[in-house]
Amino acid sequence: MKIFLIGFMGAGKTTFGKRLAKKLDFPFFDLDHLIEDITGGSVADYFAKNGEAQFRDFEKEVLQKHDFPENFVLSTGGGAPCFHDNMEWMNKAGKTIYLQLSPKAIAGRLENAKEERPLIKGLKGDELVQFIEQRLAAREDFYKQAHFIVDGLSVNPDAVIELLTRQW
């Protein structure tokens, strides 16, 4: 079973993904960390040096061509589902789960993690919430194509496993 976790940055994809993978005894991958391992630098550095368009092309290549095992849990970057044919590809390749959170909840989580997130560096308070609202509105149509939409605040591995096994 291939499980792709999607959602806005700060939604908890990596944290939840590790818990879900452990419960299923599947390996866990974080798409941004794979990119960092391959490039030898941070996503923020790659973004700054090469721009968003080149980053999204490389992100697609890693997502769709990496040699993943048969069963795994993968946390994508927040924008990954919204570029190229990534969302369609993930939906065909496995099961997608959207961790949904309100813009204010996301802003609260991101407030202290802005330095390593190039898109929100320098934003704070209402400015950060407004940025998230605008970006989330643009991405929501992609996120809502997921097989499952779960509340990012109360998501629980057992409930998600039950959803997956009932639908698989």
Automatic annotation (TrEMBL):
It catalyses: shikimate + ATP = 3-phosphoshikimate + ADP + H(+). SUPFAM superfamilies: P-loop containing nucleoside triphosphate hydrolases. The keyword Amino-acid biosynthesis applies. GO terms for cellular component: cytosol. GO terms for molecular function: ATP binding; magnesium ion binding; shikimate kinase activity. Its EC number is 2.7.1.71. ATP binds at residues 10-15, 117. The keyword DNA-binding does not apply. Keywords: Amino-acid biosynthesis, Aromatic amino acid biosynthesis, ATP-binding, Cytoplasm, Kinase, Magnesium, Metal-binding, Nucleotide-binding, Transferase. InterPro entries: P-loop_NTPase, Shikimate/glucono_kinase, Shikimate_kinase/TSH1. Substrate binds at residues 32, 56, 78, 139. Its main location: cytoplasm. Its cofactor is Mg(2+). One of its GO terms (biological process) is aromatic amino acid family biosynthetic process. It comes from the Bacteria. Binds 1 Mg(2+) ion per subunit. Pathway: Metabolic intermediate biosynthesis; chorismate biosynthesis; chorismate from D-erythrose 4-phosphate and phosphoenolpyruvate: step 5/7. Mg(2+) binds at residue 14. NCBIfam families: PRK13949.1 (NF010555). Monomer. PANTHER family: SHIKIMATE KINASE, SHIKIMATE KINASE 1, CHLOROPLASTIC. Belongs to the shikimate kinase family. Catalyzes the specific phosphorylation of the 3-hydroxyl group of shikimic acid using ATP as a cosubstrate. This is Shikimate kinase.
